[in-house]
Amino acid sequence: xxxxxxxxxxxxxxxxxxxxxxxxxxxxxxxxxxxxxxxxxxxxxxxxxxxxxxxxxxxxxxxxxxxxxxxxxxxxxxxxxxxxxxxxxxxxxxxxxxxxxxxxxxxxxxxxxxxxxxxxxxxxxxxxxxxxxxxxxxxxxxxxxxxxxxxxxxxxxxxxxxxxxxxxxxxxxxxxxxxxxxxxxxxxxxxxxxxxxxxxxxxxxxxxxxxxxxxxxxxxxxxxxxxxxxxxxxxxxxxxxxxxxxxxxxxxxxxxxxxxxxxxxxxxxxxxxxxxxxxxxxxxxxxxxxxxxxxxxxxxxxxxxxxxxxxxxxxxxxxxxxxxxxxxxxxxxxxxxxxxxxxxxxxxxxxxxxxxxxxxxxxxxxxxxxx
Length: 371
Prior knowledge:
Elements: H1 2-24, H2 47-61, E1 63-73, E2 85-98, E3 104-118, E4 131-132, H3 135-138, H4 154-164, H5 170-174, H6 187-190, H7 198-210, E5 212-217, E6 221-229, E7 242-255, E8 261-275, H8 293-296, H9 312-323, H10 328-332, H11 346-349, H12 357-369
Antiparallel strand pairs: 1-2, 1-5, 2-3, 4-6, 6-7, 7-8
């Protein structure tokens, strides 16, 4: 009996051993796990999708375009006779920030009235070192307030018009009602502006048309600076006409909340009034096409004489690009060559060899009135 039990036990143990061996040779079915984030592969972004996303990002960021215009005339100039001759250059200026829908977000309007006297012998009588202030800089010194029916100075009225056009497109500005006398015909507008507004409308319209994306964003503050001198004016001679020249440099800049320049444009104009040795004006006083240096481009003619082969407008654009991203104090603190007035910074002078003093002053003024 014991032998049978022992034999049965041994048989069961042998069977168990065989089954265990078979089990160890069986392959398990692979386990299917849910894909992890790292294992997930996304479809590549197409160029069209990337472009669309970039456009959305720009729109969401509130990109603005920066524009300006400067329009000059010499029609008020007069010959010398019983009274001294007068060469007068009147320049109307506007700077704007424009959003993606073409609406004006910010606007500044100013004007420069440059006056140079000369004798009936063709000799200049005005100090060539005179620095000409704009009408906004003159403020009450301009003297319109006393004669104003609404007791407002020119700069106050210009500011009123600038604020009135905010939120409007160029077409809406162009459509502002003007009376036969050239003043505002809109009840709200004429309550704050009694000067002729035709020039305001024209210069703002052109400023919007010139606006380009240069880095300004929603919330930035717009500023500008105008620097005007007459130092290049000359007496008339028997064989050469005299010239009264209004040389203005225009700097337009926007500033971010951190005080850094977010966009910058620089331009200049040289408007001449010629006269002879008898004190008679020889320039066409009805001339209306006074181009700025940026408008002239290569026609200005500096490129041939430039040591770096760059035209004035190219150098102005290079300086504006250099200024962008910096503070006004960083720009005004740039070292300049005492003789030429050009920058001494190695990187900057590779693209700018013109005098930058007026550029620096313009940036400083722009920061001061960016409100």
